[in-house]
Amino acid sequence: MSAKTILYVEDNEFNRKIVRDLLARTSYRLVEATDGEAGVTMALQESPNLILMDIQLPKISGLDATRRLRADPRTAQVPIIAITSYALSGDDQKALDAGASAYLAKPYSPRELLDLIRKLAPES
Amino acid sequence: MPPQAASHPENGAVPAPAPHLGWGEGLARFLLTRSPLGLVVRWFASVPGSVHAKLLCGFMLITLVLIAMGATGLQIIAKMSRQSQLMHQAHDRGTWSLQMEHAFAMQMNFTSLALILKDEATIARILRENNRFNNTMARIEEASPPEERELIQRIRTAQEEAMTTVADIANLVRDGRLDEATKLQVAKEYPLYVQIEALINQVVKIEQDKMDGLRRSVAAENQRALILMGGFVVASIGLALLLGFVISWSFILPVREAQGFLGRVATGDFGARIAVPNRDEFGVLADHLNRMSRELQRLHEDQRAAARELTTLNEKLKRASMAKSEFLASMSHELRTPMNAILGFTELMLDGIYGEIPPSLKGPLTDVQANGKHLLRLINEVLDLSKIEAGRMELSLGEYSARDVVETVTASLRSLAAEKGLEFSARVPEDIPPAVGDAKRITQCLMNLAGNALKFTKEGRVEIGVEPKGNTLLYRVSDTGIGIPQDQIGRLFEEFRQLDATVAHEFGGTGLGLSITKKFVELHGGRVWAESQVGKGSTFFFSIPLRVDKGRPT
Q: Of B169, B251, B320, B514, which is least packed with CB atoms within 10 Å of its CB?
């Protein structure tokens, strides 16, 4: 069985690097997008097994991108982990309402993120 | 006359609630608008003078008419009385004349009787009748009118002649010369009688003519008096009605105007103006009303301007508040993103993702991680407080277990207590009921208090607990720390307050924890307080309603 693909949509280079480094020692294949629109395009292109979606993104927000992915039958079932900002009240609920499978508040612990990824898309 | 004088009372923009419109009202309106009376009323209103003077003039005018009527009546009565007196006089003179005639006839009769009876008694009766004639004659002569004087003179002459004749006849009778006496009577006395009768009849005729004249004059006078009095009555009634109408309407019209005007003002038309032709108290009243209206309009405009300003200000404040919220949201994200990188990379390094780290770096990396977490907590507190201040903090209510809250806090702080060598315990009764509230925030509150207690306690113990009390849950954190002076307990929960700078230096912290705790507790409708003794320790309490219905925005 081939390696599982994870899509990370995040505009900050350093945060992308953390996940890149975190997953380097695992079997997951990581693909990256830097804004909501590119995220949606890449999700349809790469058919990832799991998507990490930052909520505040350029062009279209993570919430809108999530809604679009949920509306498309090709990505409707893919687990999506929303990365929320703590100070925006109700962000967690908004993310779940938009269709996210789980959420993680920034700043997250890489260890916890890996646990969550493994839970939603176990390594083959 | 001012131009508005042509308007009638009903043409105000908003008619006053019309009083009962009976036929009298309809007639008055007809007279005011379709007859010259309207002009008279407005002219009268425009006459400068007080209401009192105008009323007095009206009453005086009617009184003068009544006085004239009385005087004329008296004059007529005096004239009638004089005519009546003249009538009586004429009547008396007629009666007297007839008495004279009667006396003379009796004289003639007794003369004839004397010729038959030939006695002295009858002759004496002749003389008596003669005297009666003379007496009556004297009354007629007295105050006789000039036209009768000549007649009366002739009667007297004839009478004197008749008297002489009668005396002759009497002597002849006494002498027994009856034939001569009879001849004398026939030849002389009888013609004298006829003559006197004719003269008396003339006098009677004159008096009767006079009476007829008087009678006609009295009838004519009566007629005239009737017409005059009727005229006066009609004139005085007409004048009274006219004055009553003019005076009353010259007062009612401005009152009606004022009524309509006040009605318009009452409905908020402060630009309303009142115009009346009156130059009396009502005119003054209208001027005052106009001034009042102008003043009200000015105040109204001021107030509206102020309201507009407030609305603008409010809009500005709303926009500012929105901007602040947006700024907070964006700041939260902007601050958190680098924090995520700092804490993330540190954790990856400590976890050996980048290979085994030299033991000498383990300490400094752990310090970086601890300080990063501390910085993150500070950021969170500042943002929380800002959100509360902006009124943007909302509770997310749900069912929760107070036991879980206490256990979460205990688990988080157990290692810190162990490091400081403090005894750290939790006490939760078995039968604690499930509650409704924002568990995350309540946990944050208890965490703040317990963290503080551990921070400010050098030795001894810290105990946290919760127990139901009535409709609330009472959370409690007690320590054996440095304690708080009594006079400063009240100020503990103010923002940025720590007991003194050295405390901040020694123990760290933003000084925001307590004020955030207070605000979260109050959002739940609860209360927070502390009891303390310096050197012995403190106990912090906060109560949260068992079931919170709706968060109270600060």
A: B320
Give the residues across from A31 on adjacent strands.
Answer: A7
Looking at the structure of chain A, the number of domains it has is: 1
- For residue B3, the model assigns a pLDDT of 40
Check if the beta carbon of residue B45 is closer than 8 Å to that of residue B278. Answer: yes
Identify whether the C-beta of residue B83 lies closer than 8 Å to the C-beta of residue B218. yes
**What is the value of ipTM here, to two decimals?**
0.87
Q: CA nearest A104 in B: which residue?
A: B340
Residues B144, B207: Cα–Cα separation, whole Å: 11
Which range of residues forms the domain containing residue A58?
5-120
Domain CATH code at residue A42:
3.40.50.2300
Is the bond into A107 cis (omega within 30 degrees of 0)? Answer: yes
- Which domains does chain B possess? 68-236 (1.20.120.1730), 394-545 (3.30.565.10)
pLDDT mean over A61-88:
86
Cα–Cα distances in angstroms (integers) from residue A28 to residues A18, A83, A123, B53, B60, in the given order: 14, 19, 7, 112, 121
The mean per-residue pLDDT over the stretch A84-103 comes to: 77
Low-confidence ranges of chain B (pLDDT < 50): 1-17, 498-507, 552-554
Q: Of A56, A87, A109, which has the smallest distance from its Cβ to B328's Cβ?
A: A87
Check A88 against B336: CB less than 8 A apart.
no
For residue B307, the number of C-alpha atoms closer than 13 Å in the C-beta half-sphere is 6
- B283 three-class SS: helix
Q: Which of the four pLDDT bands, split at 50, 70 and 90, describes residue A1?
A: low
In order, the DSSP letters of A59-124 are: SS-HHHHHHHHHHSTTTTTS-EEEEEETTSTTHHHHHHHHT-SEEEEESPPHHHHHHHHHHHS---
| Mean pLDDT of the region A103-112 | 88
Q: pLDDT-based confidence at A117, cuts 50/70/90?
A: very high
Closest CA–CA distance from residue B336 to any residue of chain A (Å): 6
Question: CB pairs below 8 Å between A and B: how many?
Answer: 77
Asked if residues A88 and A63 have their Cβ atoms less than 8 Å apart, the reply is no
Report the residue from A12, A25, A87 with minimal CB separation from B353: A25
Residues of chain A with a CB closer than 8 angstroms to some CB in chain B:
12, 14-15, 17-18, 21-22, 24-25, 56, 85-90, 93, 106-111
d(CA B431, CA B429): 6
Q: Do B344 and A111 touch (CB under 8 A)?
A: no
Cβ-proximal residues to B177 (8 Å cutoff; 6+ apart), any chain: none
For residue B7, the model assigns a pLDDT of 40
According to the model, what pLDDT value does residue A65 have?
A: 92
- Distance (Å) from the C-alpha of residue A21 to the closest C-alpha of chain B? 7
pLDDT at B4: 42
Q: Position B199: which residue type?
A: L
Of B337, B345, B392, the CB nearest to A12: B337
